[in-house]
Amino acid sequence: MKETVLVFPSSTISSILFAFSAKDNFSLLGASSDCMLSNAQLFDEWKYLPYINSDNFTNEIKLLLSRYKIKKIFAGSSGAWHFLQKFIDEENLDTTLLNTPEHNSSIAYAKSFKTYSNELYDYYSLFQTDTPELSNSEFASMLHNYHKVPGESGDNKFLALTQIAKYIPKGDMVEIGTQQGKSAFLLYAIAKKYNIGKVLCIDPWTNSVQKDSPELIQELGKNTEIDYFFYNFLLNLSLYKDKVNYIKKTSDDAFLDYKTNTNIVSEEFGKTKYTQKIALLHIDGNHDYIYVYNDLKNYSKFLIDGSWILFDDYIWAFGIGPKKVGDSFLEQNMPNIKNCFYTDGTLFVQIISASNIKIPVYSI
C-alpha cells in the first residue's frame, strides 16, 4: 500500500506539478479551501479544508492527519508552508514537509512541467478543427511564462483564452484590473500570435477597498504593498512594449483618457497607438457592484461587432458584484449574444452587434 501524502493547498501550480511527479510513488490526498476547485481529479482523494486563518482549521487538519495516518505533507504555497511548519513544531507532530519554500529545482520543474503541459495541450488540441493554431512548443512557452507571473488566473482560463483567440476580432484588448500582469501577459501573447491589436492595462495600483466584500478582504486591500504589484507588472511586461501600455488611474479616470486619446504614453512603455475599438474587454477591477457596472457602461461604448467581454470572478466567494452585472447583461442582451460560457471563475460573453448592446439599468 502506498504511503499517503497530503497536498495543501492543492490548487497552486507547484502542487499540480508535484502531483504529476509523485502520483506513481504515493497516494495523494489533495486539500484546498476552494470548494469549486477544478483539478481535484489529479489526486487519489480530495478534501475540503477551511482557510488557514479560520478558527477550525487546526482541528480539521488534525482530524485529516489522524484519519489518513499522514506523515508527509507537500505545502503548495509559501504561506501554507510557514503556517504548517509552525503548526507541526507547536503540536510536536511526527509529520514532515516534503518541500521547502524555495522548491524550484529547474530540472525537476522541467520534467513535471513537460508532462503537465503535454496533457493540457492534448486537451487544447481536441477542440481545434484542423491543425492546432498553436504548436506544442508555443503552447508550452505561453503556459510556462503565464505561470511565472504571480496571480490568481488558473489554467482553465488559460485554455479558454487560447481557444477563443482566433475568434477575437481585430482591435484593442482592454484589461481593467491588472495587478502583477498575469492575464495581461496572456493577452499580449495572444494578441501577438493572432495579430489582434494592442493590450491596454488599466489599474491605479493603489490600496483600494471593496466595500461589498467581507472585512478580511477589505483588510487585505488596505495592507497589501501594492507598489510592488506595479513593480512586478513592469518586470513582467516591460519587454513587450510593442503591443502593451498602461494607464495608472482608476478605470473611471482612465476612460476619459482612452476616449479622448488614441495615443497612450507612459514613461516605461513610451507611446502606443490604440484604435478606440475594443475587441476584448476584461473586467477585473474593484468587484463592488457600482464599479463593475460603471466599467461595463463606460467601456462597452467602444466594443465592436464580435467582441468579447470577460467578467472576472463572476462566481466569487467574497462578493456578488461581477455576477450581478453579468447576469443583468445577459438578461438584457440574450438575442445579441453569439457565445457565452463560464470557466475558472470567469464569464465569457461574445456579442454579435455592438450597436445593439443594451446596458442594464443600475439597481441598488
TL;DR?
The protein is of the alpha/beta class and 364 residues long.
- The CATH superfamily of the largest domain is identified as Vaccinia Virus protein VP39
**What is the count of structural domains?**
3
The total of helices stands at 12
Overall morphology? globular
Number of strands: 14
Strand line-up of the largest beta sheet? 8-7-6-11-12-14-13
End-to-end CA span:
57 Å
List SSEs in N-to-C order: EHEEHEHEHHHEHEHHEHEEEHEHEE
Describe the protein's architecture and organization.
The protein folds into 3 domains: 4-97, Rossmann fold, CATH 3.40.50; 114-148, no CATH class; 152-356, Rossmann fold. The longest helix is centred in the first third of the chain and has 21 residues, at 106-126. The model has no long low-confidence stretch (mean pLDDT 91). By secondary structure, the chain is of the alpha/beta class. Helix 1 crosses helix 4 (106-126), helix 4 crosses helix 5 and helix 5 packs antiparallel against helix 7. The strands form 3 sheets. It has a 7-stranded mixed sheet with strand order 8-7-6-11-12-14-13, sandwiched between helices. The protein has a 5-stranded parallel sheet with strand order 3-2-1-4-5. It has 12 helices and 14 strands. It has helices spanning 13-22, 57-67, 78-91, 106-126, 136-148, 155-164, 182-194, 215-223, 226-237, 251-260, 289-299, 321-333; strands spanning 4-8, 27-32, 45-48, 72-75, 96-97, 172-176, 199-202, 244-247, 263-266, 270-273, 278-283, 303-311, 337-343, 346-351.
